[in-house]
Amino acid sequence: MAAPIFMTIILLGRCCSLENAGRGIKMYFASWDSENLATGQLWQTACGQVFFSTGVGFGYYIAYASYNSKWANAVQDATIIVCSNCAFETIAAFALFGVVGYLDINPANTPRLGAFEIGFLTYPAALVAMPGANFWAILFFLTLVLLGISSTYPMLDVIVTGIMDRYGHKVPRPLVAFVLVVVAFLISLMYCSQFGYYLLDGVDRWINNLALVFVVWCELALSTTVYRHKDVIMETGKPAFVLYNGAYFLGQILGVAVGHHVSGAAGAGLGFGIFVVGAGISLVLSKTPTATAPRFWNKNPIVKRFWFLAFYSGNQLRRDLNVVVATGKNWNIPVFWSPLIRYISAPILFIVYSLSYPEFWTLRNDPVYVFGFILAHFCLIFAVVSLVLPRYYDVFVPKHRLDDGKRVAAPCVLENLLEAEVDDSAETGSSGSPLPDKPSFVDKSPDVIATGEKL
């Protein structure tokens, strides 16, 4: 929509020209506050804001992908979306800090400013100082309404898409959308009450800082652990697989716990120690893989075992995705993507997630925050149940898609080749698996060569 961009440009010009606006802009762009940067609350808020503005963790992109063109340049689109969002928010922040300087707000002695204060107190202070203030106020709040509506669309569309995929042959889409809108409206009424602002702040804080961060952490850590894990077990053995990944998760959990109760250095030492010891023992227990690992990792049996335990799932996920998204001149998912999300992004997000509990301890006597905290943990429970007991969610999966996730172990064979073999077996009535026992890492089939992927 053009309205938010148009309004941001107007606010940017006005807010940066207010008296003492330079003081706030200097605070934003030309000062370093290491004390505030070291606080967990700052990083929690930053993660929640970025995830909310880009739609990460809400399922937007899973739903929208079903409407996308088959040959869309998904990697390029994702890069453009994230970079544009960051650039827009970075520039728009100049307007906000211009008002901060104008109102002489000092973070050292000012309570935390949430979205409500920024939208309904901070920016309106700049609008009041503009010629034709009433007109600009109407335009500004109309823009907020449009932003609220546009944010609601993707949230509801995720649910609508899931329901239509499962029950679309029985229920018309307009009826599903109407019922969801009515339910959302009724739930939102409690935020319009006298204590609605406090309730909204309590729920919003924990949904963003706790539930949303946990869901994204699960996506990062588990996608590079569970994906095609049968291949890893086949090549290294189940004990090595369980021990390596157990050390990976246990190191994060115990490291963070000790970090909060003892010291950050002690927590980091324990976390890394558990992971290193677990990885070492798993390498001893592991079988030497028979499938071929890429280049450097194939030179030594120990290094080869480590590659299959540490990098195979994430790398194979990248390769299988590239078959779909990297056709023709489309961008590839880079090779560093899977190690980055597993060993950098996931541990950092778990630390950010853990910061919610010390924060809650300081707010434990506030019923509104307790309510939001409990509500966020229901989201966590649903996420954990989907992993431990996924069959209970089969009701949301179309019956003809229930077997989509069942694959034979075939290390280093691309997913499209597995699907082709399954289709051929179904057509011919063959009962055995036609895949080779020891597939080569470099598959020379035309389907693989067409992707242009460099192994």
Structure characterization notes:
The chain is built from 20 helices and no strands. It is mainly alpha-helical and 455 residues long. Residues 430-455 have low confidence and may be disordered. Helix content is 69%, strand content 0%.
Summarize it.
With 455 residues, the chain is mainly alpha-helical. 69% of the residues lie in helices and 0% in strands.
Keywords summarizing the entry:
disordered C terminus; 455 residues
The succession of helices and strands, N to C, reads HHHHHHHHHHHHHHHHHHHH
Q: Percentage of helical residues?
A: 55-70%
The shape, in one word, is: globular
Unreliable spans are: 430-455
Q: Look at the helices and sheets and give the structural class.
A: mainly alpha
> Roughly how many Å is the radius of gyration?
25 Å
pLDDT averaged residue by residue:
82
What is the number of helices?
20
Q: Could you tell me the number of beta strands? A: 0
Major beta sheet, specifics? Answer: none
Q: Give the distance, in angstroms, between the N- and C-terminal Cα atoms.
A: 41 Å
Beta content comes to under 5%
Task: Itemize the secondary structure elements and their pairings.
Elements: H1 2-15, H2 21-29, H3 34-37, H4 40-54, H5 60-65, H6 74-102, H7 115-128, H8 133-167, H9 173-188, H10 196-223, H11 229-236, H12 238-261, H13 264-285, H14 301-310, H15 312-325, H16 337-354, H17 356-362, H18 367-388, H19 415-428, H20 446-449
